[in-house]
Each structure stands twice: as C-alpha cells, then as structure tokens.
Design a protein that fits this description.
With 394 residues, the protein is α+β, with helices and mostly antiparallel strands. The chain is 25% helix and 27% strand. The chain has helices spanning 37-40, 46-53, 180-183, 194-202, 219-227, 239-243, 249-266, 294-298, 320-335, 352-357, 368-383; strands at 8-10, 17-18, 22-26, 29-33, 59-64, 69-80, 91-95, 98-103, 108-113, 120-123, 128-132, 140-145, 152-159, 163-164, 173-178, 205-210, 232-236, 272-275, 290-292, 304-306, 341-344. Strands 1, 6, 9, 10, 11 and 13 form a six-stranded mixed β-sheet that branches. Strands 2, 5, 7, 8, 12 and 14 form a six-stranded antiparallel β-sheet that branches. Strands 16-15-17-18-21 form a five-stranded parallel β-sheet, with helices on both faces. It is globular. The relative contact order is 0.13.
Length: 394
C-alpha cells in the first residue's frame, strides 16, 4: 500500500499537459497558455491576454499508481469593482475518465478590474497546495482539469508513487475556437463547459481556444489554428463582434473568408464546422456595443445591456441575426468547392424557446444547465450518426 509520506516530485513539462499550446517558465513555476508566444506578442489588449492565460480545457495528464496527489498552484483571482464576488476556480481530478475529486485554491494573486474604465490592478498572493487522496491503488490514468476561468501557475506536482507520461489516447483531436461562451463563462466546473461536455460525449481530445470577449477573427488566432495539429476543427463566431461593435458588414464577410482561408492553408481537408451565435435577446436585432448595466451593479448583480441603435443595421452595423445570415451564405458558397466545410445554426444549440426556459443569467452567458444542453446538442449535431465529425463522414 502506498503512503502519503514518500513523495515523488515530477517536473511539470509540456508532455504532461493536454489542451495547452505553450508553457511559459517563470520564477514561481510554469504558466500554461492557449496561444503560442508569437501570437501573444500581437495581442492588442489586456482582455485577450487574460483570457488566453485562463486554462479552459487544459489538464495535467499522467499514469501512476499513486493514491495521493498534491499540486502547488498560484491562482489569479479576479475582482470586478461593484460586482458580486466571483467563486474560486475549481480543479477536477479524473481517474480513468471518471470524476474522483474537486479542490480550489482560496488565495492567490488578485487582479481588480473596473469594467467601466477598463483599469486593472494586480496584487501578488501565496502558493496554495491542492490535495487529492484515497485514489485507487492501481495503475491508472489521472487527469487534473485546471479552472477554466482562473489563470493558474503550476508550481509543483507531488505524488506518492512515480508518474509516467500517458500513452497516446488514440482519440481524435478537436480544435475549437469561440467566445466567452466556449471559454466557459458562468459554468461552475472545468468539465462542465459546453466544449468539455461535448468532447467527453464525442470521445475526442479537446483543444479549447474559446477566449472570453475575444473571438474577433484575429489573424494570429487563425494562424495558430492553422499550425495546431487537429483532426476536427470548429469556429463559433458572432457575439463578440457584436458586443464590441468591432466591424461593419462590409468588413465581416471578407474577414470570415480570410480566417477560413488561413485555417485551410494548414488543414486543407480537415472537417471544419462554422457555428453561428446562440440566442441572445439583447443583441438579436440590436447592435453593440454591450455594456454593464450600472443599475444592476448598484444592486450587486452583473447584467449586460445593448447600447446600439437597431436602425443602424441598415448602415452595416452587425447584429446576431445579420451574422447568422451572412455565415450561412459564406459557408454555402465555399462548400461548393470545400466538401468538408459545414455549418451549425447557433439557434439549434440554444434558441428562443430555450431562452424562455433557461434564460441567460446576465443576459449574455449561459448557466451550467445551459452549458449542459449546448454541449449535448453540439455532440449530437457534430459527432452524431449524421454529424460532420462522425466517423465515415470524412
């Protein structure tokens, strides 16, 4: 029987991580990134820099007989001025694919963000130790899923038996890009985001490039997807382009074409799904930008409102309805010469009837039950018998 007193410390290397595209070494440990260094040098704002460092879909993976695991981390806590406190990020340990334990780091670095001005201040915090005990005393595959919405520096991994790099899973790699909804906003656990749920149902290895506030057709994101090995690819585009009021219809179409062209440069025949936005009442027919509802914040609630003028859609301002129509047109046009390109209508994942039953709590992001529904529906539409990702369909 193993004891918890004879610890083996294993260096945390890229070979023990899945879902990360880069590993930055710092004085306190290693920091997983979901964009490579070259792309990070081109990031124009703090929002994307923060989002890509939050390890949505990133997990430590190893084989061991250990019955106890300790992980030293430095978590980055976000505090939004005027908004209710955020819950601590959740770490989930899976044994042979089954959830076995959860833990959180209550302390860490703290970044205080003023949503009205965009100003942010950071205060350093301590290293915390997470402990998982009473694991089965047998050779097993262990995964530790890192918090999807909390930047996590990994300081040390200790086990009471040696750790080995796991053999290849044999599963296909699914590379997905999207907004905060794909990132996992308002999900409560890292395996509870809709892409994580869909990947489990589809029995694939997830690489999640869902970036909160930052699915903006950035060329460096397209180049990263071009250069990342993948068997299946999807992009979910729309809500961030509306709520940032980033571009007009004239620029949107060519930008989508360019994004897809770049991906195809590296993955010419890989099954590629274009997914349009889910239902979001505030932006269905009202352009952005969106903004925090200050009256709700004064009551300790976080909600968002659309501030654009619906009449301006005639001048090319984007709404979700406009974007869905344009994406469907682009995919139909391109599919004539690209048989591996497919379209998923976002309202088939979460539509107006779903909104009536499961409204978005802050009028922008789904709750855990809605993540579950979207994940199940995507798995059916993509991995199901007639789905674009189904074996035999590509």
């Amino acid at each position: 029987m193993n004891t918890e007193h004879h610890w083996t410390t294993t260096p945390i290397t890229a070979g023990l991580l899945r879902g990360a595209l880069d590993l930055e070494r710092t004085e306190r440990g290693v920091l997983p990134h979901r964009l490579p260094a070259r792309a990070r040098q081109q990031i124009p704002d703090g929002q994307l820099a923060m989002a890509e460092s939050q390890p949505s879909g990133v997990r430590l993976a190893f084989r061991t007989r250990a019955t106890a695991v300790e992980l030293d981390v430095v978590a980055t806590k976000r505090v939004y001025v005027g908004a209710p406190p955020r819950p601590d990020g959740v770490y989930e340990l899976l044994v042979d694919g089954r959830l076995t334990g959860r833990a959180s780091a209550p302390e860490g670095d703290t970044i205080t963000i003023d949503l009205t001005s965009g100003a942010a201040q950071t205060r350093p915090g301590p290293v915390e130790t997470l402990r998982f005990t009473d694991l089965p005393d047998k050779e097993k595959d262990v995964e530790i899923w890192l918090p999807h919405d909390e930047t996590t520096l990994l300081a040390a991994l200790r086990t009471n038996a040696p750790v080995h790099t796991p053999p290849p899973s044999g599963r296909k790699v699914w590379l997905h890009h999207g907004s905060s909804i794909s990132h996992g906003s308002n999900a409560t656990t890292p395996t509870g985001t809709w892409p994580a749920l869909a990947s489990a149902l589809g029995k694939v290895e997830l690489v999640n490039m869902g970036f909160g506030g930052s699915a903006l057709l950035d060329p460096f994101t397209a180049r990263t997807m071009r250069d990342t090995p993948a068997d299946l690819i999807s992009i979910k585009i729309g809500i961030n382009l509306v709520n940032t009021d980033l571009m007009r219809l004239r620029a949107f179409g060519p930008a989508v074409h360019g994004f897809l062209d770049t991906i195809r440069d590296g993955h010419p025949t890989t099954p590629l799904l274009v997914v349009s936005p889910i239902y979001c009442a505030i932006h269905e027919d009202t352009p952005g930008p969106s903004a925090p509802d200050l009256s709700a914040m004064s009551e300790g609630r976080l909600r968002f409102v659309a501030t654009g003028d619906p009449a301006q859609t005639a001048a090319g301002k984007l709404t979700l309805t406009v974007i869905r129509d344009e994406l469907a047109r682009i995919v139909q046009q391109r599919a004539a010469t690209d048989p591996n390109l497919h379209y998923v209508h976002g309202l088939d994942l979460y539509g107006e009837a779903d909104h009536a039953e499961l409204p978005l709590p802050d009028d922008l992001h789904p709750d855990p039950a809605t993540h579950q529904r979207i994940g199940e529906r995507f798995a059916h539409l993509a991995f199901g018998e007639d789905g674009a990702f189904a074996a035999g369909n590509h």
